[in-house]
Design goal:
Arginase, Chain A; alpha/beta
Length: 196
């Protein structure tokens, strides 16, 4: 099962990932695409991420999760086109963690390096249930984090949110309908093997 929340449309490379692309042949319905338009913000992203991930976990019943946290979804990313804050990004990590399913968390895209570092630091702290100060400690890299020198600078409102309520509702409804067609997670039967 693969679930992808990503930029889609306007000839954006590679041009795949529409919500109706659900996989083919034996993989049919094992691909969940959540195509997003420019400017999605924390509230709108949250209104999709949580119900979709909840539905996937309920229908598929995974025994492990690989969560790839692409920081190019943060507002003010050099190449990104979304408006997520670091805290909003972290909400997704916290939500997945609540399932208490073994999870491997990976970094991913992100092209404003100082914000990528902030994001992954914050998410690592969330995963470790560790409180972390918003004020950054002084290090040899301190100047990279100017002008505010904080973990949670304002990185939002770079691009207008083009994801309308109607569009978001359509995505959510389509994904949930597609999941209903999915057989549950495949399993391997365990049996005792005799010792010779």
């Amino acid at each position: 099962m693969t679930v992808s929340f990503h930029k889609y449309g306007n000839l954006f490379f590679p041009g795949t990932g529409d919500m109706y692309e659900v996989g083919t042949e034996k993989g049919k319905h094992y691909s969940v695409n959540v195509p997003l338009k420019d400017g999605i913000d924390d509230l709108t992203y949250d209104s999709l991420f949580k119900p979709i991930i909840q539905a996937v976990v309920e229908h598929y019943r995974p025994t492990c999760i690989v969560l790839q946290c692409g920081a190019d979804s943060l507002g003010c990313d050099r190449l990104g086109c979304f408006n997520l804050s670091i805290k909003g990004h972290g909400e997704c990590v916290k939500f997945v963690k609540r399932f208490n399913i073994p999870t491997l968390v990976l970094g991913g895209g992100g092209y404003t390096v100082r914000n990528v570092a902030r994001c992954w630091t914050y998410e690592t702290a969330l995963l470790l249930d560790s409180d972390i100060n918003n004020e950054l400690p002084y290090t040899e890299y301190f100047e990279y984090f100017s002008p505010d020198f904080t973990l949670h600078p304002d990185v939002s409102v770079k691009i207008d949110n083009q994801n309308t309520r109607q569009y978001i509702d359509q995505i959510r409804q389509t994904v949930v309908e597609n999941l209903r067609l999915l057989p549950h997670s495949p399993s391997v039967q365990m049996q005792q093997v005799s010792k010779l």
